[in-house]
Amino acid sequence: MNMKLQSSLRQKITLGYLGYYVMALLIVALSLFTFLELRLIDNKVTLGEHISELFDATLEIRRFEKNYFLYRQEADLQESKRYAVKAIDLIESNAADFAKLVSASRISALQNDIRAYLALMDEYAGTGTKDAVQTELLDAQIRQAGKDVVTVAEEIAGTERRKIRATLDRFRLILLSSIVLISLLLIAVGWALSRMVARPLKHMDSCVEAVSSGSLDRIATPSEDREIISITQAFNHMLDELELRQKMLLRSEKLASLGTMLAGVAHELNNPLSNTFLTTQILLEEVEENDAARRKELLQQVEEQTVRARNIVRDLLDFARDKPVNRKNVLLAPLFDEVILFLRRETASDVRIVTEIAADIELPADRQRLEQAFLNLIKNALEAMGETGEIRISAVRRDPSRDSAVPRFDEGGKSLGKCSFDGDVVDIEISDNGPGIPAEILPRIFDPFFTTKDVGRGMGLGLFIAYGIIEEHGGCISAESEVGRGTAFHIRLPLERVGEANT
Ligand code: ADP
């Protein structure tokens, strides 16, 4: 038993989903982190505002202190004290927050410094200018205390600024690395999914496309996934079945046409054979020994019927023999001239054959075979018209891939053979103004042994053979007809010259 764990497309897709879930989780976590971090920064900014307020208050204390020493204005002293009280209030109401930035002892030291400063100011105000030495000493003490207060406040403000900057730097770093990580994960999961899932599916898609355009080549398994393997197997099985059915269809088609052909041959041969049999019976039983003239007449009939049977057999042999196609560059106009000349004796004097073929149209062809095809078509037209009428033969060189005005070939009716080409083609039309072909029999005229002619006049192989020859030359043929107005056969043949041809 194969113990190897078989991978499956479903597992891979689930894995892919898992990757996307992880990413979604990461994004949620990142958003949460951003939210919390912003709240933290918000708190720090508020704290920073209080610290700035404290710092400003200490600066104001010193400013009014200086003014007081300069101008001895009571108002300046009061302002300085007011700011000192404000600074103490700020420290007391934000003690817990400030403690996060500097040690509690430093805070209480600041508080004490300010209180001491206040006390010194009071003392200074009380002493006045009575004792110059005392005043000078107090002056120096106040200046020093004020300086200390500003230094500590400045230190607190600096620490706060550094902390905010550090928080912002960390926040930026985490945000950036998370974005990079999520983007990388996104690319990795997408790439893995496309490699593991999309690629085999794409391969299958191109294989299906190839099958729909006619190829029956079996598909190689593009991946080890269970689903892909079973789809490929099912697909290949379907191709096997398709091929089998195609073969069966071909076989039954072949059997059917063989049946038609045998019936046709039997019928065709039966007539001359029965005629010969009847004539010999008469000869043996009824004709007097000495009636030489009658005997001769009957023997001539036997000969005629035998020739007819021989011709039928010769036609069949001609048709059945698989002669190799011998292509050479052939000029079209002289080829038609030869066919028309060959049919001279069968052309009634009131029948006109008009040709419009450029002298330089040349195509790669087996001359004899192509002559045979055109002969069959012209002969049919002559036979259909009888004593009067006109046959028109024209040939035009075209390039259907470049020339959009070239008519689609199958517009006229049923067309047989390959009608689309890449390069130049020649469009040949052989038309007559004979009785035309009824619509109900038009689709059958190319069938082997289909004829409307009397026994002995047609075997129903003429158009079938003509179509076979056109097909051998890589071309196509179609017929267009209307009862009472005549018939036209359109033939399209590739013009690629021998030597330039691929084959
Ligand atoms: P056959 O000439 O031995 O009958 P073909 O295959 O050449 O066999 O032709 C099949 C039938 O197509 C003819 O019997 C005739 O009814 C019809 N047909 C062919 N060409 C013409 C035409 N130009 N005009 C009228 N009918 C035609």
Describe the structure.
The protein is an alpha+beta fold. It folds into two domains: about 10-205; about 325-500, Heat Shock Protein 90, CATH 3.30.565. Helices cover about 65% and strands about 10% of the residues. The protein contains ten helices and eight strands. The protein has a six-stranded mixed sheet, with helices on one face. Strands 1-3 form a two-stranded antiparallel ribbon. Helix 1 (about 10-70) packs antiparallel against helix 2, helix 8 packs across helix 9 and helix 9 packs antiparallel against helix 10 (about 460-470). The longest helix is centred in the middle third of the chain and has 81 residues, at about 130-210. The two termini are about 50 Å apart. The mean pLDDT is about 85. The protein binds adenosine-5'-diphosphate (ADP).
Write a concise keyword list for the protein shown above.
Heat Shock Protein 90; six-stranded mixed sheet; 10 helices; alpha+beta; 8 strands; binds adenosine-5'-diphosphate; 503 residues; two-stranded antiparallel ribbon
Largest sheet: 6 strands, mixed
Low-confidence stretches: none
The helix tally amounts to 10
Strand order of the largest sheet: 2-4-6-8-7-5
Please summarize what this structure is.
This protein has helices at residues 9-71, 74-93, 95-99, 104-127, 132-212, 226-285, 292-320, 332-342, 367-385, 462-472; strands spanning 328-331, 350-357, 362-365, 388-398, 415-417, 425-432, 476-482, 486-494.
